[in-house]
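Students often ask why inverse folding is considered easier than folding. One informal answer: many sequences map to the same fold, so there is more than one right answer. In these notes we will look at a single instance of the problem. The structure comes first.
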């Protein structure tokens, strides 16, 4: 007899966690809903739609092979689908794990009978809240040290392995010379993949797996070919590799195909074999148990209006170059936008120091930029995009998350990338027709916001630099030209 309907969301695709943890084929019927509202609510990147839809279909098939009865419904919305199934099984209770977004938790409240606490992250809300309650500012480094100690990761008693909590200085090298990057793992399409791709009229890249086996293969490939060298070049941007030594695991971690505990355990086991430098191991662990957990916990810790914040009162429209690589001559931006077109992914530095930096210094509306980021990335979800964009990327939360904005001129991009040499602009110049737009707009941004940042001691050096500029009127003039040219797709 069926006693429960268990609802599996498309971002909770793991048989040992969430609602599947104690499910049994004898008593439970599984429900998955492909809500049309979710698919058509915005102009999603087709690679992202393909990934989520195909991963969910594969997961349903996997559960069927384990003996579960699975209803995979297409409905107007998730709630409409769940209501339809409840009507078919009036005696059964509907069980779900806590959803990963504020809006979806609210929507399901009225229809779900039993809600299980989410276990897709490593940090219980009360642990984070207790930490946050003791902080003046939410500095990630302090949270990360708590995580290392609490989870006993890379620790020797009370001290960090290698004698330091972080190896950031070693992990910020620019592009290496005469270096061969291992090719990324390619994932072949199967019948389900091809069916979904045909429905979408999309030709998927081979960058992403849509099965648990494929996600595990990606983890193994990372540990074998990339982990040892992960650290030093994690911030670099190069022409001959789109993924460098990054793990490419974010889509699977966010869809549930991999659990962070599995990734952490596998990484530590590999580290304990002895040939992984501590700077690389620490660099990766920092992303996984530090940044990822911090960002998720911040999403739940802040109020639901956090995503609407606009502390710098930026109201500019989204520039055409974000959606069209040919609408700019800036080599860094056009290369990066083309990369997004190809596979809906970039590593953290082009997301932060090129795209978010550009939105920040052009005064683009944080909400317009956030909506664009959400629809263009394969691993985007509200919980991860809102803090990363509003807090870290464009400093729209007034500095609650980051003590200073990540604003930078062309010098940073020139140091960390290979984009500037073939670019028609010069990162060293801030005025004139060939001045790098990042350099011009960086100074203009500081100038426009100097009163706001006046009391921020972490901005003192930049503001002192601004005061020394003898050509500020020309910078302002050039900035106005650059903004106009960008809006018209000329710059
Ligand atoms: C403006 C901005 C927007 C971002 N948007 C997203 C997003 O929508 N989804 C997403 O998963 N990540 C996002 N990130 C974080 C990071 O860029 C990606 O997680 C990473 O590039 C994914 O590639 P990877 O799996 O190879 O990561 P690796 O470099 O191999 O890192 C390992 C893992 O650490 C986690 N991680 C690292 N940094 C972060 C972070 N800041 N927030 C959350 N998780 C992190 C990811 O799960 C990642 O898979 C964003 C960062 C910035 C600055
Ligand atoms: S010169 Fe400026 S616009 Fe051109 S690639 Fe470098 S940073 Fe980008």
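Output (designed amino acids):
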């Amino acid at each position: 007899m069926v006693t429960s309907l268990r609802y599996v969301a498309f971002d909770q695709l793991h048989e040992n966690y969430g609602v599947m943890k104690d499910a049994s084929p004898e008593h439970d019927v599984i429900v998955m809903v492909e809500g049309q509202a979710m698919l058509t609510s915005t102009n999603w990147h087709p690679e992202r739609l393909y990934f989520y839809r195909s991963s969910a279909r594969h997961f349903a098939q996997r559960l069927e092979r384990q003996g579960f009865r699975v209803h995979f419904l297409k409905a107007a919305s998730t709630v409409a689908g769940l209501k339809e199934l409840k009507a078919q099984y009036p005696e059964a209770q509907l069980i779900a794990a806590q959803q990963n977004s504020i809006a979806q938790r609210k929507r399901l409240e009225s229809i779900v009978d039993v809600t299980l606490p989410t276990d897709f992250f490593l940090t219980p809300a009360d642990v984070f809240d207790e930490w946050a309650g003791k902080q003046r500012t939410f500095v990630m480094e302090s949270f990360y040290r708590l995580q290392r100690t609490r989870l006993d990761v890379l620790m020797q008693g009370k001290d960090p392995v290698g004698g330091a909590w972080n190896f950031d200085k070693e992990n910020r090298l620019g592009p290496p010379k005469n270096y061969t990057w291992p090719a990324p793992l390619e994932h072949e399409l199967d019948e389900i993949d091809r069916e979904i791709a045909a429905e979408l009229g999309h030709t998927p890249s081979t960058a992403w797996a849509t099965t648990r086996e494929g996600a595990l293969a990606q983890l193994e490939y990372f540990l074998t070919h990339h982990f040892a060298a992960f650290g030093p070049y994690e911030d670099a941007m190069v022409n001959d590799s789109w993924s460098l030594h990054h793990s490419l695991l974010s889509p699977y971690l966010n869809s549930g195909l991999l659990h962070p505990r599995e990734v952490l355990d596998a990484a530590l086991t590999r580290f304990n074999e002895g040939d992984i430098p501590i700077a690389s191991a620490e660099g990766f662990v920092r992303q996984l148990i530090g940044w990822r957990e911090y960002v998720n916990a911040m999403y739940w810790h802040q109020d639901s209006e956090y995503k609407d914040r606009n502390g710098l009162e930026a109201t500019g429209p989204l520039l055409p170059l974000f959606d069209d690589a040919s609408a700019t001559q800036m080599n860094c931006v056009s290369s990066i936008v083309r990369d997004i077109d190809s596979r809906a992914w970039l590593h953290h530095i082009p997301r932060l120091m090129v795209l978010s930096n550009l939105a920040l210094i052009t005064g683009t509306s944080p909400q317009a930029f956030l909506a664009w980021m959400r629809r263009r990335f394969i691993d985007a979800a509200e919980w991860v995009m809102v803090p990363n964009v509003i807090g870290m990327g464009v400093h729209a939360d007034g500095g609650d998350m980051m003590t200073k904005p990540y604003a930078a001129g062309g010098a940073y991009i020139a140091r960390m990338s290979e984009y500037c040499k073939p670019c028609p602009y010069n990162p060293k110049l801030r005025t004139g027709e060939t001045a790098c737009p990042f350099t011009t707009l960086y100074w203009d941004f500081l100038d426009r916001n100097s009163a706001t940042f006046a009391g921020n001691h972490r901005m003192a050096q930049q503001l002192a630099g601004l005061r020394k500029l003898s050509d500020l009127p020309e910078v302002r003039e050039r900035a106005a030209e650059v903004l106009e040219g960008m809006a018209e797709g000329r710059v």
